[in-house]
Structure formats: structure tokens, C-alpha cells
Amino acid sequence: MSKDRTTAAIHEDRSIAGAVRTLDDIHPAVRSSSSAVHGRYLGSSPFFHDQRIRCQMKRIFQATIATAVLGAVAVSPAMGATKAAAGKTCKTVGTNSGSLTCTKQGTKNVWRATPRPTAAPTTGAAQPAPTAAPATTAAPAKEAAWPDRLRLAPVPAENASSTVTSWTPFAKALEKEIGIPVEIITTTSYAGVTEALVGGRIDMAMYGPFSYYLAKASGAKVEPIGIYVSQIGRPPVYYSVLVAKSSRSDIRTIADVKGKKVCFVDPQSTSGYLYPFLALIDAGIDPEKDITAIFAGGHDRSAIAVNNGTCDAGFAFENMVFPLSPKEPATLTTRGVLKDGDLKLIQKSKPIPESPLAIRTDLPASLVAKVKTATLNIDALYLQANKLCPAASPRCGIFGANDSDSTFVPATDSFFNDIKVLCTNPVAPKACKPA
């Protein structure tokens, strides 16, 4: 087949490529099987060295392999929501039955996030025309009611410079899809994000689940667009970790931090305060009396403060300090701030609902709808195929260089019911009561 005919076939096969996003979510065997075939049969051809074409062909191969692994029924996203066989339980962890469904997938029952809509999306992840500009669709005409720009503020998980660097690829992708500029706004606290949103100074926010719950409880007019997932097909959960210097022989369990200086992230942080607070209570430690609490202001700062001795131990989200997989190295190791082995794991939390990307509901309805559609079709492959990643990190993801297989899945407020339950606990921190 000629190059022109091949590129035309790739560009026209939109329905197959669109289905593969759901197939990626359905069965991990699809990813491993297709990766092996993709590498063996496409790696030797000079034509397929083009990154955009390789990503597109990878999706088509995944659709083909999925049919073989799961049967032809797997091609329909709607069929992925079939209920699991009666009497069987899911082996993969899930935290909220309202938004995670125990689903029959091949011979297994696993947890899946709410399935994507079955209708064909108006934009397609990783579907650029190989011979044209990378954008997947022409920018829509701006409606009169739309603002001149969209302002996005992530909660300060990292320092301001790292936050802007990490979020720039996603902002560029969203800008391509909705046709107006997207500006990244930084704040110095989690509460500052909600204050800016309520005050109309930002339009979108990347919250943690706890800070999102508090924003809603305080009356903010906001709704979730999508839930972040670090790897396609993985349940939308993450973990908090308690760490100490590897050389600290006096700190081996969480009980050993009593009487010591302990770093938290922010009073509105889920993995950096809410879950750690309750973990300390469970260990017989009063976080307000039995330790010296220090709020570092970011997950990176908490871990760094432990490493430099400012805190004896500290909390952060897991991937800030430890790798999750070969594709997901530790953030601080990637940045060269920590070396492997500098910090040791003291305790890991139970699963925490993943973080939501949210938008103001008082924006024009057409803009909100467009942003939702675009967000659910922007994943790591989209960023890589459209060459939106920085030169130093060509395999970037939603959160930057260390999550090269990340995506968003649909979200509803019910997904965060676990946070509401925790905050009704009589021993919950005072931060559970919004000002």
C-alpha cells in the first residue's frame, strides 16, 4: 500500500480509533498484547517512525487485539458496562460503588469507572492528520457569550514554576479544542483556589477530592468535568504515604512519630492532611497535641522538608516520592531533587478517590459542554501525537513528564461520597467544616 493510501486509511478510520479509548479502559491485556504486536510489526518501517502515525496505528492495533482477547462484543463501549456475574466480587480495588462499577471483562470481574458516552465524540484523542497540522479538529467559532480566555488553577501540589510547566501541555491541548486561550493561574494555598473561583478570578480548577468537597460545601458553583487517572485502565484512586529519612532508625511505624515534627501539605489536602490526620488518630496519636504539625504548602515541599531534616516525617501523595510503574517514575526523582532511597515508606493509606478537574457552572452552557467533551478526549497519547510536550519530555502526560499514560474519565459528585463520610466522623479535622 502506498504512503498516501495508508495515511488516508488512518485518517478516515475515526470510528475504530475512537473506540480504542474505551478498549484501553476495559482490559489491561489489550494494552500489553497490542504493545507487543505494535513494536514487532511497526518498529521496522521508516514510515511508522512518525510519532503521530505510530500513535494512531497503535490505537488501531489495540482495537484488533481487543477483539481477539475479549471477543467482538468488546468493541462496543456500552457493552463494557454489563454487570458482573452474580455472586462474584471484583479483585481490583475500588472505593465508591456509586461511580466504580464491578464489571465482567473477559473472564474477570474488575472495577471500572463510569463508561464513556457511546456517541461518537466531536474530538478524538490522538487523531491528527499525518500530513497536515497536528490539531484534530478546526477551532470552533467563538460565541459572543464566551469569555476571551479560560483561566485554570491547579491546587498547589508543587511549586508555582513546576505547576505551570506540568500543566502547559494540557492547557495548549484544551486551547486547540475550544478555540480560546487557556491561562494557567497559580495560588499559594488550596483555599486560595476556591476563593479565586468564587470571586470569578478563575474558571476551572484542578482540585484534590477533599478541597473539591469543601468548595461544594461552601456553596461554590462548580461541577466536575472529569476525574484524573494516572494510567489508562487503572481505577481512579491514589494513595497517601508517610515517609521518613532512610537513615532514621527511630522511625519505623506511624506510632514512632509521636512527639516529633510532622509535615503535612495543606489543611485542605486529601492525601496531605485529611487521610493522614485520621491515620494518626487510628494510631493513637492526637494530631493537634501529640506532634508538632508543619504545613509545608505542597506535596513536593513536604517530602523535601523531610529529606533536609526540617521535619522528622511527612505526608505526600505516593507518586511524588515513589515510582508507580516504569512509565510513572517518582516526580521528585525525575526533577533530580531526590535520589532513589533517600526516603523510606513508613505507612501507605487506603485507596483515595482521585482528583477532579472542575468548572464553574455559571459560565455559558455551550462553553461548559465544549470543555467537558474536549477534556475527556485529551489524554497522554493526544499530547504526544500533537507534539504538545516539551522537548525535554516528549512522552508527557496530563500532569507533566512523569505520567505518560494518563487520562480523564467522566465524573459526578457522587464519586466523592467517601470524603463526605470521613468528614462526618466525630474525630475529623476542623478543616472539614468550611468557613
Largest sheet: 6 strands, mixed
Average of per-residue pLDDT values: 75
User: What fraction strand?
Assistant: 15-25%
In terms of per-residue confidence, which ranges show pLDDT below 50 for 5 or more consecutive residues? 1-88, 90-100, 104-135
Distance between the termini: 65 Å
Binned, the helix content reads 25-40%
Class inferred from helices and paired strands: alpha/beta
How would you write the strand order of the largest sheet? Answer: 4-3-5-14-6-15
Order of helices and strands: HHHHEEEHEHEHEEEEHEHEHHEEEHHEH
Radius of gyration: 22 Å
Nutshell version of this structure?
The protein is of the alpha/beta class and 435 residues long. It has helices at residues 3-12, 14-26, 28-42, 51-70, 160-178, 190-198, 209-217, 270-282, 299-307, 318-321, 331-334, 365-375, 380-385, 417-423; strands at residues 100-105, 108-113, 150-154, 182-184, 204-206, 222-229, 237-238, 240-245, 261-264, 292-295, 313-317, 343-348, 352-353, 356-360, 407-409. It is globular.
